[in-house]
Amino acid sequence: MNAFFHIMALPFLACLVLTGIHAYLGFHVIERQVIFVDLALAQIAVLGASFAIVLGHDLDSALSYWISLGFAIIGAAIFSLTRFKKQRIPQEAIIGIAYAVSAALLIIVLSRSGEGDEQIKQALVGNILLVTFPEIAKMFVVYLVIGIMHFFFRHQFFMISKNPEEAFGKGLNVRLWDFLFYVTFGFVVTSSVKIAGVLLVFSFLVVPSVCAILVSKTIGVRLAVGWTIGVIASILGMAASYFLDFPTGASVVCVFGSILVSLALVRALIGKFNS
């Protein structure tokens, strides 16, 4: 048991930090119906990292990080500029196109490099078992700053996510606030995908929020439920990974899925009994 705590302490701490920001951002993503925006921004950020590799810089270098972040900000600008008062084309379609084009560009860029394929694959898959305390501390500071910003401007962010028509009607600069939202989202994705990988980050973003929506209609309760689900899935997933010798990230993702299915079944049974 001591070995379990020794090996899993830092990965679990990283999961707690991921849960704190992603469970909150997940509500915005679901309300906006842009479920795959984190995958698209992650792909765009990795595309930036591929340019850094071709230029001869290591994936873990500071320049690589800033180039990745710069590409994510460009993606944020694209997504904010495609938000209109009357949305003729679903924004999810635009996000899907951005994902496909950035993935194709990634293949083209890496074709010019004899190295980097494994580094890029690692950037997308991640390995949370290898996370270090300085990485967690850096991630925590970045997420804390973003969380404080979202707290002070929560009315604007929630309005453009839940009721964009009202935001347009009140004269709110929706595109500016959209841009700020996606930029902060880009900061989060650029940092978290590198540590945890796309699948695990996607699960932390979406599953706790979906579970919370099944349970309550109030934001405060939803946040509490989302954070609780994230913590429980992290504990159970890491226990399964350690004692059953499964890959850690995949184990946590599968636990997330199991919790969601179980909660949906309980919700259905309660509804059946109450009808």
Distance between the termini: 47 Å
CATH topology: ABC transporter involved in vitamin B12 uptake, BtuC
The CATH architecture can be named as Orthogonal Bundle
In one word, what is the shape?
globular
Oligomerization category of the chains in this entry? single chain
Question: Overall mean pLDDT score?
Answer: 84
Looking at CATH, the homologous superfamily is ABC transporter involved in vitamin B12 uptake, BtuC
Give a quick summary of the entry.
This protein is mainly alpha-helical.
Write the SSE topology.
Blueprint: H1 2-32, H2 37-54, H3 62-81, H4 91-110, H5 117-125, H6 133-152, H7 154-162, H8 164-169, H9 174-196, H10 198-215, H11 219-244, H12 248-274
What does this structure look like?
By secondary structure, this protein is mostly helical. The protein has a single domain (2-274), classed as ABC transporter involved in vitamin B12 uptake, BtuC. The chain has helices at 2-32, 37-54, 62-81, 91-110, 117-125, 133-152, 154-162, 164-169, 174-196, 198-215, 219-244, 248-274. The N and C termini lie far apart (47 Å). 39% of the residues are buried. The mean pLDDT is 84.
